[in-house]
Input
Amino acid sequence: MQHAFTPNVLFGLNPMWVSTILLVCVYAAIIWDKINRAIIALLGIAAMIFSGLLTQEEAMRGVDVNTIGLLTGMMILVSISRRSGMFQFVAIWAAQIAKAKPAGILLLLSIATAVLSALLDNVTTVLLVVPVTLHICEELGVPPYPFLFAEVLASNIGGTATLIGDPPNILIGSLAGLSFNAFVVHLTPVIIVVMAAQALTTHLVWGRQLRSTPEHQARVMAMRAIEAIEDWALLKQSAAVISAVILGFIFARQLRQEPATIAMAGAAVLMLLDNWRHHSEKQAENVHRTFTDVEWITIFFFVGLFVVVHGVEVGGLLQMLAGKLVEATGGDMARTGYVILWASAILSAIVDNIPFVATMIPLIKSMAPAFGGEAAIEPLWWCLSLGACLGGNGTLIGASANLTVAGLAERSGVPFKFSTYTFYAFPMMLMSVAISHVYVWLRYF
Output
C-alpha cells in the first residue's frame, strides 16, 4: 500500500477476518447468480464502509478510474459504430468468403470473433456477432450451437491478446502499469498458436459433420453484405476514430497519456461527429441513446469490486497470502508463475474471472519485494492474464462473454446448458493453458 490506513472495525473485530468474510459473501452471491452482480458489488461497498474497514475517502482510493474510463469510452465507441452496420457486414462477408460452406463459416466466424475481441472487447464482440450468426445458421439450415460455442471460446482467446480485449487484462494493465504494446508483444504470439489449436479442435469435433443443402447455401450467397451498411458517413467516421484510438493505445507512452484518456477522447470525438448533423433536440435524444447503451451494470460492478478488494487488502489478507505463496514455492519465480497460471485457469472457470483477477493483482504486487522489485515480477502478470482469460472458457460462469452468448442463444430458442458446455469446453481450456505453460517456460523461465 502506498499510504498508511488503519481500519476501525466495529466492536474491535479482527479486520482480516471481517474483510475475508465479506469477500466470501460477495463471491458466493455472485456465483449464486440470483441477484444482479452490480447490486451485490454495491452492497459490498456499503458493508466495507459500515463495518468500519474503510472510510468513504479510503474506499474511493481503491477505485481505479483508468479502468472505469477505458471501459466506458470503448462502450460508447462501439455503441455508435454499431449503428453503421460495420460489424454485421464483416460477418456476412466472412460467410460468403467461405462459399457458404458450414465448416468454412465456422472457421472464419471464429477468426473474426477473435480479431474483433482483441480490438474491441469480448462481450461487445459477441453481442455483435451472435445475432448475425443465428441468422446465417437459419439461412443455412444448420444447428447454431457449434458456431456459438466456437465464438465463445474465440472471444475469450482473442481478447487475451491485447490490453482492451478482455476485462481482466484491462484490470491488469491499469493496476500493474502495463502498456497496450506490452500485451501485444508478450501475449499475441502464444494466442495465435492457441487460436490455431482451438480452430483445429473445433473442426474435428463439429466442423467435419456440419452439412447444408445447395439451396440453403445459395440463399446465403445471395445475401448482399453491402446492404448491412446502414450509414456510410458514420461507418467512415467510426473507422477513422477507432483506428486513431488504437494508434493512441499503441503510442500511449510516447503521448504520455493513459488508456482511459485516449478512449474517452475518442468517444467524445465520435459523439461530436455523430451529432454534428442533428439539431439540438435530436442531439439530446441521440446522446441519451448512446449513454443508454453503456453497460452500467458492468461499470458499477467494477466500482464495487475495486472497493471490496481494497478492503481485503487493507485487512491484511493479501499480504499474508503472498507470503504463504512465496514460502510454498520456495521463492522460485518459475514455480510461482506456473502456480499462478494453473490456479488462475482452474479458479477462473469456477468463479467469474473479473473478481478473481481483481483479488489477485494486489496479491502479486505484494510479492515484488521477495523477487527483487516490480520489474522482476512482470512474467507473473502474463501468467495471470493467460490463466484467467483462457480459464474463463472452462465453464459458462467463467467469463462475462460466456453468459452473454448463453442468454442470447436461449432467447432465440437455442439450448445452452451448463453441463453440455462444460463437457466440451473444459478439456479445450486445459489444452490452451498447457500451450501457454510451454510458452511461458520457453520465454520467461
Q: What stands out?
A: The CA atoms of residues 73 and 268 lie 8 Å apart.
